[in-house]
Amino acid sequence: MNAPVLSQSRCADCPIRHRAVCARCDADELEQLDAIKYYRSYEAGQPVIWSGDQMSFVGSVVTGIASLTQTMEDGRTQMVGLLLPSDFVGRPGREGAAYDVVATTDLVMCCFRKKPFEDLMERTPHIAHRLLEMTLDELDAAREWMLVLGRKTAREKIASLLAIIARRNAALTPGGDTDTAEFDLPLTREAMADYLGLTLETVSRQMSALKRDGVIQLAGKRHVTVPDMTRLLDEAGTDSED
Amino acid sequence: MNAPVLSQSRCADCPIRHRAVCARCDADELEQLDAIKYYRSYEAGQPVIWSGDQMSFVGSVVTGIASLTQTMEDGRTQMVGLLLPSDFVGRPGREGAAYDVVATTDLVMCCFRKKPFEDLMERTPHIAHRLLEMTLDELDAAREWMLVLGRKTAREKIASLLAIIARRNAALTPGGDTDTAEFDLPLTREAMADYLGLTLETVSRQMSALKRDGVIQLAGKRHVTVPDMTRLLDEAGTDSED
DNA sequence: GGCCTGCCTTGACCCAGATCAAACGGGATC
DNA sequence: GATCCCGTTTGATCTGGGTCAAGGCAGGCC
Q: For a FRET experiment, which of A201, B123, B138, B154 has its CA 20 to 30 Å from that of B145?
């Protein structure tokens, strides 16, 4: 195992490097990634990719939030993934996109054109491995979410979502308190409903209920304080084994 | 791209080779895979792996059906995946299992001990790429299923499940009729319910309803005939784009 | 044969969450 | 300040699917 070197090359300066594709690359590989890297930005609400379209690039979220959405003919929609900063989008070796990607907030992405990226992946086992790892993580997350969608009550669903957002936020500020959490909800009630397989009215009602019961505090409609994370996780209904 | 050769080495005789890890390997690589390959069998109902356990192997289903299941403390369970012949299980580069794997019918698996497999993967880009592809496919399937769980009605859920099983069966007999289908359900009503996020009573009622409405015919409790696949897909409620 | 056991079906009733409808509130624009 | 707009809250009512309960049916065992 040749130790990976995270040098001060330009790619290493990429704000998303902490979890990114290049996490294990050496200076030379970073240089090559850097050569095909570019940034894109989107406004809140803009589509990034439509399901079925050719995807000409892969990339990671730098700032903002994107969502993966599936839609039925009659308009029913289900969000199937939430892309937070450092999350990867794209299917190297795959043709079309399998779902819509939409910018939920203003969004900046760090992209690689697909063909050169695939070529580079061909030559660089690190990257293929890192990608496999990330995809396995996403698969785990998707399957955990299937339990939420299939078996949890509305209240448990809301608590599960809040817990996930709180955890992701906590990961960004290492060393912070983990018994407590405070963050701005990046989603409208409708987006939360689409993620949870509920209606926006039910989301609103359950948010009110959690507030009334002291599980969360709300400042305005979006700013959430969790006085006791254990309590929240309890409300979310845990898996039998972790 | 050096053309892969599928030789008559022993690994090539593995009954699962058609979609397996080794699909693109050359004779030498097949030889190496063969050296670390072995078979395991399980009886219907037996656990293959418990969530959280160390997984000492990866492998593919040869015959039979296994299911991936997640369980909550209070016993609510959600099936998060169905493993049919040629499907791959395992998380190279990952420690514990993230969910229970249970043999739903009698089951034979073709396994590789994990460490040697990972070493081989390290040296063999084909395998890493193939694995990435398979994982991306599984991720797509999982996300499609999230739409089923989150937004479809009980009747649509049942139709979706029947459609999936019919499609997988059709794939095994190429050249067959695709307007019609006939197969044995490999799942009990309870297992179907766990997969669909329903109760077994609802599954039973909706099966009866689909039968009454002529969408399917039932011989015994398990043998299903679909006289018109288009009709079934219609009942399943299609995605807006495909 | 009779009995058990496991799986499935059907009926009666109930409730969580959907649906329909109205009103609130805060920011932007004039 | 008045108006509009959009996201949100809240209330009233409806309903799909859950829950509880009672058989039905087929295969295995005595």
A: A201
Q: What does the alpha-carbon distance between residue A151 and residue A224 come to, in Å, rounded to a whole number?
A: 25
pLDDT at A17 > cutoff 80: no
Q: Where are the alpha helices (DSSP H) in A103-237?
A: 114-123, 125-151, 154-172, 189-196, 200-212, 229-236
d(CA A43, CA B192): 42
Condensed to tens digits (0 to 9), the pLDDT of residues B68-104 reads: 999 999 999 999 999 988 888 888 878 888 899 999 9
- Please give the single-letter amino acid code of residue B41: S
Last residue within a domain, chosen from A146, A165, A188: A146
Establish how many alpha carbons lie within 13 A of residue A69's alpha carbon, considering only the half-sphere containing its beta carbon: 25
Quote the pLDDT of residue A98. Answer: 87
Does residue A190 reach within 7 angstroms of strand C, measured from its CB? Answer: no
**Domain limits for position A55:** 11-146
Residue for token pair 């991306």 = B136
Same structural domain, B137 and B170: no
**Amino acid B199 CA to nucleotide D19 C1' distance, rounded Å:** 10
pLDDT tens-digit profile of B145-161? 999 999 999 999 999 99
CA atoms within 13 A on the CB side of B208: 6
Task: Name the residue among B81, B128, B139 with its Cβ closest to that of A128.
Answer: B128
Q: Is the C-beta atom of A161 closer than 7 angstroms to strand C? A: no
